[in-house]
Amino acid sequence: MTAPAAARARYDRATAHLDAPLAIVDLDAFDANADDLLRRAGGKPVRVASKSVRCRALLERVLAKDGFRGIMSFTLAESLWLARSGFEDVLLAYPSADRAGFAELAADPKLAGAVTVMIDDPAHLDLVDAARDGGREVVRVCLELDTSLRLLGGRVRIGARRSPLHSPARLAELARSVARRPGFRLVGIMAYEGHVAGVGDAVAGRPLRSRAVRLMQAAARRELAERRAAVVRAVRAVVPDLEFVNGGGTGSVQHTAAEDAVTEIAAGSGLYVPRLFDNYTSFTGRPAALFAQPVVRRPGVGVVTVLGGGYPASGAAGPDRLPVPYLPEGLRYDPQEGPGEVQTPLLGSPADDLLIGDKVWFRHAKAGELCERFEALHLIEGDTVTATVPTYRGEGRTFL
After folding, report:
1. Count of CB atoms within 10 A of residue 309's CB?
2. Which of 56, 72, 219, 364 has its CA at 20 to 30 Å from residue 271's CA atom?
3. Phi first, then psi: what are they for 253, rounded to 5°?
4. Strand pairing of 264-267 and 46-49?
5. Which DSSP string do the residues of 40-80 spell out, in sequence order?
6. Would you say residue 309 has pLDDT above 80?
7. Percent of the chain with pLDDT over 90
């Protein structure tokens, strides 16, 4: 029996008592992926990106491992909820305009001590102050560095459009604004190099594009390492007791960790290893998060239809944003229909061995977005479901 066939048999046995649709996390793969992130981080602590996990039980599991420290959250409401739940170090990775959330943060010493908010503009400080509603707690602040690679005098930009703060001088200027302002404390710098960490460099069937990506990423790493070190020096000249410098992402862990200026690494998708992380030369993970859809029709030879499955991922629309049929191997979408809102035809010879009620296992294109579709994750060890835990959605929390 091949390894994929053995995995399918194991998942089918573990969930034989459960009806699909359902979602699972293979804890053996999850833990192995966590260990690989730590290995690549080379001794620097790894902060877990909660948007890639979206399950409190699994956040607790990975943070119980030596080497993981803190959460990188994605909304202020989520940050406050996690802090109230007992997580003591929550870095909000994106600026917020949640005035009610800022009022809560500024009024509660426990929340103010646990949550750090992201800014890249003095207007963010103004918004917090306007929202305080009498709260006098000091708000912890992190600055975000723009990591984009700029070529030809800035006429070419490679990287996500995030922070406007690109130069050491710009970050030092904002650091001085924070330092002068009562009610705020600058504690960190964050930089997410998505064009390195989030872009595969070994795309199957596209050798020229893959080589171009590798060349771009090598240049981007060199430029960013030099600029990030200069930024840290400039900001530390203003705030010598800076607590952390956060960088990286699943696809660039070992490269970012090699920079002396970086004190911690951010990663999350590498725990689940969705399909977008199949195309990397820097690491190989084990798919840990899957979902199953039931066969409900057999329209003809070489065709089955499963219930639902049209769960596209965020980002620029395209085939790489779709989930993929994973087990049994050899199934593919009907190009005229693709994955559907209510039904999804699947083509291929393995369809002839599937019966009504059988499960087809899929991989999502991205990590935590799977949890927006399911209220629970069934945790599998070996061929047994050892626990069923709620996702954020299952706890009634849909933050975005």
Report:
1. 25
2. 219
3. -50, -55
4. parallel
5. HHTTS-EEEEGGGT--HHHHHHHHTSTTEEEEEESSHHHHH
6. yes
7. 80
